[in-house]
Amino acid sequence: MMISPNALEPTAAPHFRCRAARACFRASCRWASLSGGSRWFVRQPYNYPAVRILGYLALVLWLTAGAAEVGSDKTAGVGVVLGVEGQNIVVKRILPDSPAAAQKDIHVGDRILAVAQDKEPAVQVQGGKLRQALALFRGPKGTTVRLTIVPFGEDDSRVRVVSFVRGELKELARWGDGVLLTTGMKAPDIEMVGLASGTSERLSDYAGKIIVLEFWATWCGPCQPKMADLQTYSDKYPDWKGKVVLITASVDDNEDTATKHLKTKGWGQTHNVWVRTDAIKVYHVDGIPTAYVIDRQGKILAANPVDIPEIVNHELQPR
């Protein structure tokens, strides 16, 4: 899964939407915002189930008024970020300037038992049915969603129903639609800012090498172990030298935030960059961590692979 807000984020989350994480089965879960627009990856050749770390997910976003490219009238949400705790779907964060924040009828830690659209029957979402819950939260602006919740710290005897009118969540507009690029597609050439040098560069500067492109943020809990693991690859795989570049692309609000975090952690074994909204969108990133492996011809090998070294080593084998 991915992680994000509150208890899961090491630092305060900026105006982001954190996607529901993928749970702890090896292929993991995601953290998602309540607009139900998250996408789940389809296995392709070398395109293993996406790994989203431990218990919550940094699933950024789809709680919202989806991105323009979604092409659906279901473009609004409530403004809540959800996570999975055991068999429960739990509110992890309330987005500012959202219907949930304005109404104050739902709080961090509340458990979601069921979701209903307007006057339709409620659908049970217990048992960690995060994707189902997300789909129910999202809908046309101005429509109603009813939530059956158990307030934080209470037992099921204290269940209550609260209603919200879906609204636009403009702060989430910077994210992609979650339909990740698939094997064989041309990897978009994006502009990046090298955090060590402060200079602008492009992904195409690394043409001819295998690229591991990892999108992350300082506030994303599940991103931290992923980043730490990437730092070990140069020692574990010395034969990658000169053939493979590990690019970690921060989606933080600004470069300084990422630079300070990297320095504190001592994460200098990867090529660390910062990217803007256009890069997030062209790679369809709606949750973090999100990783791509790109071959020497600039084509996608895998999106969110479970085992990055396996894919890279396979690509390095003589043809």
If you had to describe this structure to a student in words, what would you say it looks like?
With 319 residues, this protein is α+β, with helices and mostly antiparallel strands. 16% of the residues lie in helices and 25% in strands. Strands 1, 2, 3, 4, 5, 6, 7, 8 and 9 form a 9-stranded antiparallel β-sheet that branches. Strands 11-10-14-13-12-15-16 form a 7-stranded mixed β-sheet. Strand 4 (80-85) and strand 5 form a beta hairpin. Mean pLDDT is 78; it is low at 1-73.
How are the SSEs ordered, and which strands pair?
Blueprint: E1 18-21, E2 30-33, E3 58-60, E4 80-85, E5 88-94, H1 99-103, E6 111-117, E7 123-124, H2 130-137, E8 144-150, E9 160-165, E10 191-194, E11 200-202, E12 210-216, H3 223-230, H4 233-236, E13 244-250, H5 255-265, E14 271-274, H6 277-282, E15 290-294, E16 300-303, H7 308-316
Parallel strand pairs: 12-13, 13-14
Antiparallel strand pairs: 1-2, 1-3, 2-4, 4-5, 5-6, 6-7, 6-8, 8-9, 10-11, 10-14, 12-15, 15-16
